[in-house]
Specification:
Blueprint: H1 5-10, E1 25-31, E2 57-63, H2 66-78, E3 87-91, H3 97-109, E4 113-117, H4 118-126, E5 132-134, H5 149-154, E6 160-163, H6 168-174
Parallel strand pairs: 3-4, 3-6, 4-5
Antiparallel strand pairs: 1-2
């Protein structure tokens, strides 16, 4: 930006020695004015690029933990608070299950209830994450009318869904 490191140090913007210490974790989030993507009658607008800007920018949440930073960024971007007690539905492809453990533990620590399809639920349970099991939509309702994942989503009984695509050929080899 045109200033030298020594100038920034003399102005107090950088510490006098070293590179400085991180002061928390920052999470940035896009802010989109969703009302501009629909006409007043509720129908969608043409998605072709034009001279009108349709995005307004971004916000950032800063805190000591990722969960707090993420929650702050979502609160700022969406204009409402992240739920303190919520239900999280997970359906992860085999290739993504290991990477799903820490984010799921973080959501559990924030007070989320974890619900997952059978394979993901077993993986989470074996790794110490208490998880309720829900049927896949392709399995249909159970003998006693148990809900499917789509039923939970459609009825608003879950607050967050993470569903990763399946690499069919790879997953068949992995089992």
């Amino acid at each position: 930006m045109g200033d030298s490191i020594s100038q920034l140090r003399s102005e107090g913007l950088l510490p006098q020695h070293g590179d400085g210490n991180a002061r928390g974790i920052s999470v940035k989030e896009a802010v989109l004015p969703w009302n501009r993507f629909r006409r007043t009658d509720g129908t969608g607008v043409d998605a072709i690029l034009g001279p009108e800007m349709r995005s307004t920018g971004e916000v950032m949440g800063i805190a000591n933990t990722f969960g707090e930073s993420y929650s702050k960024s979502q609160t700022s971007a969406l204009w409402f608070a992240s739920p303190k007690r919520a239900k999280y539905l997970s359906h992860l492809a085999n290739k993504d299950k290991a990477q799903g453990l820490e984010p799921t533990r973080g959501l559990l620590a924030l007070g989320f209830t974890v619900i997952a399809t059978a394979g993901t639920a077993r993986y989470f349970q074996v790794n110490g994450i208490p998880t309720a099991t829900v049927r896949k939509n392709s399995q249909g309702p159970g003998l006693f009318g148990e809900s499917t994942a789509v039923d939970l989503i459609s009825s608003g009984r879950v607050d967050l869904v993470i569903n990763t695509p399946v690499d069919v050929a790879r997953d068949k080899m992995v089992g």
